[in-house]
Design goal:
It is built from seven helices and no strands. The longest helix has 36 residues. Keywords: Membrane, Transmembrane, Transmembrane helix.
């Protein structure tokens, strides 16, 4: 087996796993804070801006505590978490599970745009095959005349 292909496959798996962890963390934080912020006491006293600050701060504390630096993992510097990388990861986590899911879908080519492009390519191939078939039939008919 090709060692380069194996290495690339392992890197892809590591990145997908890191993105999966990001989605799970974002989902847990999002759901947990929704429950906390949905309590009537907090709902009446906290505005949207305060919720965002609390969410970012908590996401940063979690990412910092567990050295969860998505940038370092993607750039293959897993042993070198940085404050800026942890901060970027925390902002993505604070953005919620929808944003984290979008990142993973784009990386894996599962986004709506990628699906639409694949479908358009498939349709174009079918149309080319049909046009070639019709052209071949036309040539055959003119050759017999």
């Amino acid at each position: 087996m090709d060692p380069i292909a194996t290495s690339m496959n392992m890197r892809t798996q590591e990145i997908v796993f890191a993105l999966f962890q990001l989605i799970v963390l974002a989902l847990v934080l999002e759901r947990g804070l929704f429950i906390a912020f949905d309590v009537k006491y907090w709902r009446d006293r906290i505005n949207g801006g305060t919720k965002a600050i609390v969410t970012i701060a908590l996401a940063f504390l979690i990412c910092w505590r567990f050295s969860f630096d998505l940038m370092a993992r993607v750039l293959d510097m897993s042993d070198a978490s940085t404050l800026i990388g942890i901060s970027i990861t925390a902002f993505i986590v604070a953005g919620g599970s929808a944003g984290a899911m979008r990142l993973m879908q784009d990386f894996l080519g599962l986004s709506r745009t990628a699906r639409d492009a694949a479908k358009a390519e498939q349709t174009a191939k079918k149309e080319r095959a049909e046009a070639e078939r019709i052209e071949a039939e036309t040539r055959k008919r003119t050759a017999t005349i």
